[in-house]
Amino acid sequence: MTMSKTIQVAPRVIAAIVATGLLTFSGIIVETSMNIAFPTLMRDFNVPTDQVQWMTSAYLLVIAIIVPTSAYLKQSYPMKRLFVVANLLFSSGIFIDGLAINFSMLLVGRIVQGLGTGIALPLMFNIILEQVPKERLGLMMGIGNLIPGIGPALGPTFGGIVVTQLGWRAVFFSLVPVLVVSLGLGIWGIQQSSALEQTQLDWGSLLLIILLFVGFVTGFVNLTNNAFLSWQVGGMLLLGCLGLMGLFSHTFRIERPLLDLRLFKHRRFSCLILMFFLTQMCSLGLAFLLPNYIQLANHQSAFLAGVIVLPAGLGGALAAPIGGRLLDRKGPFLPIVSGESLMLLSLVGLLSLGAVKTSWAIGLVYIFYMAGMGMSMGCIMTTSLSGLDHQSQAQGNAILNTLQQFAGSMGTSLIAMIVAQAQLNHSSQLGTQIGTLHGYLLLIISSVIILGTGLVTLRKTN
Predict the structure, then answer these.
(1) Domain residues of the chain, as ranges?
(2) Which residue of 298, 337, 365, 370 sits 20 to 30 Å from the alpha carbon of 443, by its own alpha carbon?
(3) Are the beta carbons of 63 and 118 closer than 8 angstroms?
(4) CATH for 265-462?
(5) Do the domains at 11-188 and 265-462 have one common CATH topology?
(6) What is the pLDDT of residues 216-260, one digit of tens each?
């Protein structure tokens, strides 16, 4: 009688995943924490609202430009070297911001941090795809997706406490111990498992990617305060569209493009990418909508708003490995469809609550939403990448992580625009209530598309 051997993940691989995850987590914590500090920064540096928002927009823009180079970087440079460079870049940005004497210096620090996060984020998933046994792939991808999942929920609470008690500079300096631990684990744990190949960087693709994201990110950011047909919105969105069309044309003309959009020829991959994009858009849009509603409509403090949404992040954290285990044992249909169904029901529940004054009821429903998101998000990512051959997985990972950044920016900007338009025609409280209900409707429509796409795409999987 033979006994089946339990397949384990090597300790060094776990250390490598934790190291890159901590670095990515630090980036998300800074991004979400500093949103709380915007009023303070506006006062300290005498800058208006539209200017201070570039603290987040510039950071996301740099990440969106760097992430598409991840397949090239992985192929050309050792993983450990990439990680050390990413960690040192992010740490440098932390000190630049912590010591900033003006707003320009603050922006430079955020850009340097974006360079580090842009390298680290896809590196984590590349390590999981290459070095985790197939039987544990779903579980480890679920754990890896805890990082972007829990960060937006923890950030406002963390930021509210630190900014209130210690000042905004402490947000940056408080992450130094985390970065030191990350660096130590990465140096010990990250190992090279694939052969390197020196290739030329596709500068044409990189230029078109810059045009694409500068246009789209800037256009969506300006959507709240400018008319659609203005050059700040319509002109920049047109620039983004031209960059996108140029990138598709360029991709099909050369053998090894920087971002291989030919992967979209695979129908299953394209459908899962659509689900991934809309899920991220909904989640980041809702993460903006709920704290905003709790503060402006229910007149709660920023700190209490962060505390109310905090349990939802923990719910997502607990659900992610559960979804991964279900994926490993039962296949993708059950965790993805169950998770997306829970998200849709939660959004309907939030709409049904209407202009409820009980913020804790909103927080309770949000727990179920984040649990559904945590259960499905990593499984969608794993299923989309596992359907590609080994050589295409790094490119697929680059596409996913690139779209993740853009989806977050798009979701936040669309929801902010909807709420802002409602506030123009009503009082701040009533406008926020009406805009929030309209925002829920947009998210519900998106969630229906996600669930329908999942049912059609995955019905023959199990």
Answers:
(1) 11-188, 265-462
(2) 298
(3) yes
(4) 1.20.1250.20
(5) yes
(6) 888 877 776 777 788 888 899 999 999 989 988 888 888 788 778
